[in-house]
Amino acid sequence: MAAVLIYMMLIGDFFADIAQSPLFGYADVPRQHLILASLVCVFPLSIPRNVTALRYISFLSTGVIVFLTAVVVAKMPAHVLATPTYAAEPAWQAGGRLQTALLIRMAGFWNECFAYTKKGLTEVLQSFAMALFSFNAHTNAVPVAMALDQPRAVRIWQVSFLSVFIEFVIYASIATAGYLSFGASTKQDFIRNYPADDGWMLLVRCVYSVPVIFGVPINLSPAAASIQALAGRLFWPQFRRQASDPQPGSWRSTCRRACVVGAVLLCSASLAICCEAFADVIGLFGALFGTVICLVWPLRIYQRVMKNLHSPVLSTAVSVALTAASLLGMVAFLDQCARVFHFF
């Protein structure tokens, strides 16, 4: 559901920038109208139980991310040299000044990350929470493992390592080039740093809007199934004796799923309209649910099941690491709440 909320916020950002571009010229289109209008397309796509037909969108999504990486990296030198410090330099000196500008930006990055200030600590805690959310958002990990031909432990490890390594290279490139381009003025949705009249970024936004739209039903499908089953066990007596809907294709089941999907989409759209800082949303969800799912529960499982299988030194190290990470996640959640809701 948190992933669906993030997609709804991205829909508002992408389509607002597209509408404001010189190609369309609608500068006064409210962001909330675009988010609500997207429900007309997203709602019917989210009702079917089986969304495997949307698996072909994954290729487009991967291609768009690679294209975005190439555009961001290619535009980075021009944005670095466009800063006031170097914009007045002659063209023949630009090449020599680029290296110096990059070093200055990197020095500023390290100072911001490791400065012993409240703001620096808050940014580190938010980054930790976002990392937990990113890891927890891989809802397709189990289906991929089940779909593997001969899913041995070694094969699962190889596929997992290769996919994570590719993701690390791509996202590290985007993050590095994006920050070097804009420095401390980088927005939470860094694509919004690029002007609306940027032709290449307009193309990125237009192409990226397709997987973003289809990403909502893909991520909503498992959440809707879980909510429907939970609600059925609590409120519908026939669900209490069976693990699933006895008649998945019946009109009653379809109506129940439509109600669940509609409620989730309306809540997500309302939150997306009220909040544009999706990094804060990711930080809150990641610090709360990510800490529980990725750290607290694995710690309990390890202590109950696997602790006796390891040596005392290894079991103690694993327990201490997971405990420390869990405490850090809790601190990150409290810090995010205090910053977002202005408790202190």
TrEMBL record:
<feature type="transmembrane region" description="Helical">
    <location>
        <begin position="285"/>
        <end position="302"/>
    </location>
</feature>
<feature type="transmembrane region" description="Helical">
    <location>
        <begin position="128"/>
        <end position="148"/>
    </location>
</feature>
<feature type="transmembrane region" description="Helical">
    <location>
        <begin position="202"/>
        <end position="231"/>
    </location>
</feature>
<keyword id="KW-0812">Transmembrane</keyword>
<feature type="domain" description="Amino acid transporter transmembrane">
    <location>
        <begin position="4"/>
        <end position="332"/>
    </location>
</feature>
<protein>
    <submittedName>
        <fullName>Slc38a3 protein</fullName>
    </submittedName>
</protein>
<feature type="transmembrane region" description="Helical">
    <location>
        <begin position="160"/>
        <end position="182"/>
    </location>
</feature>
<dbReference type="InterPro" id="IPR013057">
    <property type="entry name" value="AA_transpt_TM"/>
</dbReference>
<keyword id="KW-0472">Membrane</keyword>
<dbReference type="Pfam" id="PF01490">
    <property type="entry name" value="Aa_trans"/>
</dbReference>
<dbReference type="GO" id="GO:0015179">
    <property type="term" value="F:L-amino acid transmembrane transporter activity"/>
</dbReference>
<feature type="transmembrane region" description="Helical">
    <location>
        <begin position="314"/>
        <end position="334"/>
    </location>
</feature>
<feature type="transmembrane region" description="Helical">
    <location>
        <begin position="54"/>
        <end position="74"/>
    </location>
</feature>
<keyword id="KW-1133">Transmembrane helix</keyword>
<dbReference type="GO" id="GO:0016020">
    <property type="term" value="C:membrane"/>
</dbReference>
